[in-house]
Write a structure and sequence with these properties.
Layout (H helix, E strand, L loop, with lengths): L5 E5 L11 H10 L2 E4 L16 H12 L3 E9 L7 H4 L5 H15 L6 E6 L24 H6 L3 H13 L4 E6 L7 H15 L6 E4 L2 E2 L6 H14 L4 E9 L20 H19 L5 E6 L27 H13 L1
Parallel strand pairs: 1-2, 1-9, 2-3, 3-4, 4-5, 5-6, 6-8, 7-8, 8-9
Bound molecules: ligand G3I.
The site of ligand G3I has 12 residues, from loops.
């Protein structure tokens, strides 16, 4: 359907388990060319010494059987609840264990994944700061355990170099959220990518997660943010790695929140928002620099926003396509 990967995040546990759900399998294999594990390839899901991860193996083999590629998510990510024990309780061997993880996981999946989010969310975010106060604009880094143990961002360089060595053919991405707002975090992103290039980190692209609200970020901000990365380097790719579009905006003043949505009119606005984003992707990102677009989940009840409540995805609770599905389809057809 598209000449770039069109992906979807899948679960391999719980109610939305792809491996045991025929309807979801049909949706994924019939509409997409790539999958990301929503959770299963995060750090803590791997055995710390053998890197065994049977569910990831099953997911990858399902993808292969169905002719889908796999985008690896993620070699390095900071949140406590999915950290291996060596990162929860860092000791003097921290750097050895860190490199060992990146090398071990990238080697295990060599030839199985076409791309990796090598480092996820290394930038400071005021909405997810864990008590950290705003750093100076020029060094907009999150003080994660990795940053603290390495005393700065050199762990990111180390992760990219190690991943490239372990799997020379996978495309390597830096991935983050709220970087489409064209504000401080976007400047932080530009500075980070500039630093990575100076350090000769083998980076192939930048992932914009794109968990967007109905009216935020503006299309002008989104386009300007992508453009900044495009301008930075003639070959960096842009990938929309975790696209979802909420119906509600609890942050607006006054909040714009509905509590149920059965064919609610807001779904038309959501459709248009998906269309606008994909149309902008075609317009702003040159064809040879499109790393692809991935939707962050299959059906609304699978979404990490489901309990808000919200309905951010392309299929509804009955696994029927929503107006947003038509919007994506129309935008992709128009872009070809
Ligand atoms: O697997 C356990 C299960 O055994 C347990 O009974 C249950 C009880 O809480 O938890 C299950 O784990 C949950 C896991 O999802 C799998 O369903 C975790 O609690 C829950 O925190 C986890 O949430 C995921 C979150 O990342 C944290 O890893 C979301 O599904 C996932 O959508 C979200 O994805 C992230 C991206 O990786 C990075 N960008 C932001 C995005 C949204 O936060």
């Amino acid at each position: 359907m598209t000449n770039f990967p069109l992906g979807v995040a899948v679960a391999v546990d719980g109610n939305a388990n792809l491996l045991s759900n025929q309807q979801r399998q049909t949706i994924v294999s019939g509409n997409f060319s790539q999958i990301s594990a929503e959770n299963q390839m995060k750090m803590s899901y791997y055995n710390e010494s053998t890197f065994a991860n049977p569910l990831a193996d099953q997911m990858i083999s399902w993808a292969k059987t169905n002719n889908l590629s796999v985008h690896g998510h993620a070699l390095v990510w900071h949140p406590d609840y999915q950290q291996p024990s060596w990162a929860k309780n860092p000791g003097s061997d921290f750097k050895t264990k860190f490199i060992n993880h990146v090398r071990g996981v990238a080697t295990k999946h060599k030839g199985q994944v076409v791309s990796w989010d090598v480092v996820n969310e290394a930038l400071y975010d005021p909405a997810d700061a864990g008590g950290q106060s705003a750093p100076p604009q020029a060094e907009y880094y999150r003080h994660s355990v990795f940053h603290n143990q390495y005393n700065g961002p050199s762990y990111i360089v180390e992760a990219f170099k190690t991943a490239r060595q372990a799997d020379p053919t996978a495309e390597l991405y830096y991935n983050d959220f709220n970087t489409e707002e064209n504000g401080n975090k976007t400047t932080g992103l530009v500075n980070l990518i500039t630093y990575l290039k100076q350090q000769q980190a083998p980076i192939d692209g930048v992932g914009f997660q794109m968990h967007v609200l109905p009216d935020w970020a503006s299309m002008a901000s989104i386009e300007a943010s992508w453009q900044k990365i495009i301008n930075l380097d003639p070959r960096l790719k842009i990938k929309l790695t975790e696209l979802d579009v909420r119906v509600n905006n609890k942050y607006s003043n006054p909040p714009k929140v509905i509590s149920s949505c059965n064919n609610c009119p807001e779904l038309q606005q959501q459709k248009q928002r998906y269309k606008d984003i994909i149309a902008a992707y075609y317009r702003i990102v040159p064809a040879d620099r499109r790393g692809g677009i991935t939707i962050w989940g299959i059906a609304d009840p699978d979404s990490w926003f489901a309990s808000d409540p919200d309905w951010p995805l392309l299929w509804n609770a009955s696994l029927q396509p929503k107006p947003a599905f038509d919007g994506v389809k129309e935008a992709l057809q128009a872009g070809q």
